[in-house]
Design goal:
Layout: H1 2-38, E1 49-57, E2 60-67, H2 83-101, H3 104-107, H4 118-141, H5 148-166, H6 172-207, H7 214-239, H8 244-247, H9 252-274, H10 282-298, H11 316-326, H12 352-357, H13 359-367, H14 382-395
Antiparallel strand pairs: 1-2
Helix pairs in contact: 1-2, 1-9, 2-6, 4-6, 5-6, 5-9, 6-7, 7-9, 9-10, 11-14, 13-14
Length: about 400
């Protein structure tokens, strides 16, 4: 009991910290991308300045200038934007350990996908996280990132291939979290290993009376651009565990592929507007088509295929028997599943009235998708899911 209570509280604390830090990090990132693209040249600016921007906020006016490399003389104080990124990753990884590694049998493993032990699933998750980042870092340091379009297309194929592999090893929820964690790790590593160190080298060179290497700023800018285009996809992946029709359906990996494409396309629209160029309104047409495609894919049902041997008119008695045998050990006033002290999200499925009242929730989580039971720990079959789906359809008809 105490273990369950402790992990639940740790999950809350780390999730709260993770969300607050991510808002600070992504907010500042969006702001500086906007600022960088909106700078305008001015003849009155001092030497070495790329441009300026006038902004108004909170009743005050701000004049901001950006130096191409750095000013000739540094001010006494500099504000470094780094701890937002570091705290986001540290809290996110802690949350991953508490939710996915400590409860791997529920959220990381799906025995209908691959029969892994919790230890095997955890090791696979951590190893793939490190390996994926190493491959990205190696590609960047090899010079491939200088070819922007080719690198972007190659990176897209790489992430989609990883997603496909993860959905054939881990649970759908675990796979979505894993690809999101990889993207988040790449983004934070860019800050920790390239952007901030390069800025520190520039500062050190100035303090020593030398001229900073322009390549340092260029490399940092390159990684910043990568982070800019990865932000929207990672946000969707990090909240996807609340949407079973995304992660627990037959074509979940294709849904991720569309999200990975739509995010950068939408960022392109805002980047062009911030730069004062013609707004690419076609982006929203593409985004609409992509969202319609996601909706259609999410309606394809769970990954497991039925035998086709279903009754023409599913009875409530059949459905009740399935729910009581597959779901009620957790979703009851007094759960009997080890480590579960209260019904998840307060949803009770231990009698006929509760089952009828929560029919749509059952449909979204266990009939049209396979999110529940988590990890399919009670081995709910495809035929059972199809029967429940057919009953729900008849009930709302």
């Amino acid at each position: 009991m105490w273990e369950s209570i402790l992990t639940d509280w740790l999950s809350l604390i780390f999730r709260w910290l993770h969300v607050v830090a991510a808002i600070a990090w992504i907010g500042s990132s969006f702001y500086f991308i906007h600022l960088d693209l909106s700078l305008k040249p001015n003849a009155d600016l001092p030497g070495g300045v790329q441009g300026e921007a006038w902004q108004v906020h909170g009743g005050g006016f701000y004049r901001i200038v950006k130096y191409l490399v750095a000013p000739a003389k540094l001010p006494d104080e500099l504000t470094w934007f780094k701890w937002e990124a570091y705290t986001t990753w540290l809290s996110g990884f802690a949350l991953m350990v508490v939710v996915y590694y400590f409860n791997a049998d529920l959220f990381l493993v799906d025995k209908s996908v691959l029969d892994l032990t919790p230890l095997q699933a955890g090791l696979f998750s951590f190893a793939s996280l490190v390996l994926a980042w190493l491959l990205y870092e190696g590609a960047c340091r090899s010079g491939l990132a200088r070819h922007e379009l080719s690198f972007a297309l190659g990176g897209y194929v790489f992430l989609v291939a990883l997603t496909y592999a993860f959905t054939h090893v881990l649970s759908g929820r675990g796979a979505f979290n894993q690809i999101g964690a990889i993207i988040g790790t790449i983004m934070v590593a860019n800050v920790f290993l390239v952007i901030i160190p390069n800025q520190k080298k520039i500062v050190a060179a100035l303090l020593a009376g030398g001229s900073p290497d322009p390549k340092l700023g260029k490399a940092g800018k390159e990684r910043s651009v990568h982070n800019n285009y990865l932000t929207l996809p990672v946000l969707v992946l990090m909240i996807s565990n609340h949407y079973p029709l995304l992660f627990a359906t037959r074509y979940n990996w294709l849904i991720v592929a569309i999200v990975l494409a739509l995010g950068p396309i939408i960022r392109h629209f805002f980047n062009e507007r911030h730069a004062g160029r013609a707004s690419p309104w076609w982006v929203w047409g593409v985004a609409a088509v992509g969202m319609i495609a996601i909706g259609l894919l999410s309606a394809a049902g769970p990954r497991q295929l039925t035998t086709g041997a279903l009754p023409a008119e599913p009875s409530f008695a059949n459905v009740q028997e399935i729910i009581l045998s597959r779901c009620s050990m957790c979703h009851a006033a007094e759960p009997v599943w080890a480590g579960i002290t209260t019904a998840p999200k307060g949803i009770l499925l231990d009698d006929a009235d509760h089952i009828r009242r929560n029919a749509r929730l059952i449909g979204r989580n266990a009939a049209w998708a396979s999110a529940m039971p988590p990890g399919n720990v009670t081995e709910m079959t495809a035929d059972e899911r199809a029967l429940v789906a057919a009953w729900i359809a008849s009930e709302v008809r």
